[in-house]
């Protein structure tokens, strides 16, 4: 019997996992239609191109499970074919280096979502852990313009509040927090205030809600129902048509990788404590997405609301940006 989950478009706004067949099999088991999959964080142009080359090998070797998705039509085709569409994404603009023309080169490779900064200062602006948020630089304004031109979503999840506000105002296309949580439920530099959430929504933007335990009120004791409640908190602020989810799943990675993420530029000062992460009970794996749909049903969500938040809202956003 086909369940509601089987019929849904399921889009995850952020996964950063140890890419390989076990992850792709979990995607299939979870009924994941498509996801924003990180292929660059601190890397420069050359190293990021190497990572994309490795992804192209993954597409060939796992063609029964995954396909590169450059358009919303590609994502819907992946659903029809029973595969997962992979949207290549960056969590930093370090791969652009200081060359605007690199942006179009990456777009041609299938990169559809790029976060403007990752936690700290770069050529574009400031991250959420930078002591002084200097705002969007003049070069950053040019980066936003070029991303708008080629059709690449500006992501603000790890970006400082001033830089985020200035990207929202500068962009001619909708922008997003692809994976964040509300500061109204837990105060944390990575969480967004009610004012920030309303501001992005008022400017045609979008909010993907993460379940990363250190940012949830219940921490490692959180459940899938706590996650749905956090999503609902943001829905009540900005409306159900402007919200999706972005789990931040880190399947297959260990302490060494988390330390790499946690240090400025991948090697310098440590930005936060290295967390012991236990994902919410009921969502321990990418294969567990049916449990998220079931939790939404338990919470009394309508089918329309579930369809929107599980993926249709993401596709509407990407269609407008791409």
Automatic annotation (TrEMBL):
<dbReference type="GO" id="GO:0006508">
    <property type="term" value="P:proteolysis"/>
</dbReference>
<protein>
    <submittedName>
        <fullName>Peptidase, M19 family protein</fullName>
    </submittedName>
</protein>
<dbReference type="Pfam" id="PF01244">
    <property type="entry name" value="Peptidase_M19"/>
</dbReference>
<dbReference type="InterPro" id="IPR008257">
    <property type="entry name" value="Pept_M19"/>
</dbReference>
<dbReference type="InterPro" id="IPR032466">
    <property type="entry name" value="Metal_Hydrolase"/>
</dbReference>
<dbReference type="GO" id="GO:0070573">
    <property type="term" value="F:metallodipeptidase activity"/>
</dbReference>
């Amino acid at each position: 019997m086909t369940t509601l989950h089987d019929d849904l478009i399921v889009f995850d706004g952020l996964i950063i996992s140890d890419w390989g067949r076990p992850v792709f099999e979990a995607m299939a088991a979870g009924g994941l239609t498509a996801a924003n999959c990180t292929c660059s964080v601190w890397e420069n142009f050359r190293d990021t191109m190497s990572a994309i080359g490795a992804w192209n090998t993954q597409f060939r070797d796992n063609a029964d499970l995954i396909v590169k998705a450059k358009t919303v039509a590609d994502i819907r085709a992946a659903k029809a074919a029973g595969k997962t569409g992979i949207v290549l994404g960056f969590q930093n603009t370090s791969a652009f280096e200081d060359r605007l023309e690199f942006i179009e080169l990456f777009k041609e490779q299938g990169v559809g979502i790029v976060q403007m900064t990752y936690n700290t200062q770069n050529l574009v602006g400031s991250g959420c852990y930078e002591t002084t948020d200097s705002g969007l630089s003049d070069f950053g304004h040019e980066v936003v313009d070029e991303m708008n031109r080629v059709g690449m979503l500006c992501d603000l999840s790890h970006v400082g509040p001033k830089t985020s506000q200035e990207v929202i105002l500068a962009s001619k296309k909708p922008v997003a927090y692809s994976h964040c949580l509300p500061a109204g439920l837990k105060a944390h530099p990575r969480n967004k205030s009610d004012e920030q959430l309303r501001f992005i929504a008022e400017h045609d933007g979008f909010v993907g809600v993460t379940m990363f335990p250190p940012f949830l009120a219940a921490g490692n004791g959180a459940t899938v129902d706590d996650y749905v409640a956090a999503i609902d908190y943001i829905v009540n602020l900005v409306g159900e048509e402007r919200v999706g989810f972005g789990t931040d799943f880190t399947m297959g990675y260990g302490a060494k990788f988390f330390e790499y993420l946690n240090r400025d530029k991948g090697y310098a000062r440590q930005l936060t404590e290295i967390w012991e992460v236990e994902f919410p009970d009921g969502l321990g794996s990418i294969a567990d997405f049916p449990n998220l749909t079931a939790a939404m049903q338990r919470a009394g969500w309508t089918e329309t609301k579930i369809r929107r938040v599980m993926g249709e809202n993401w596709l509407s956003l990407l269609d407008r940006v791409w």
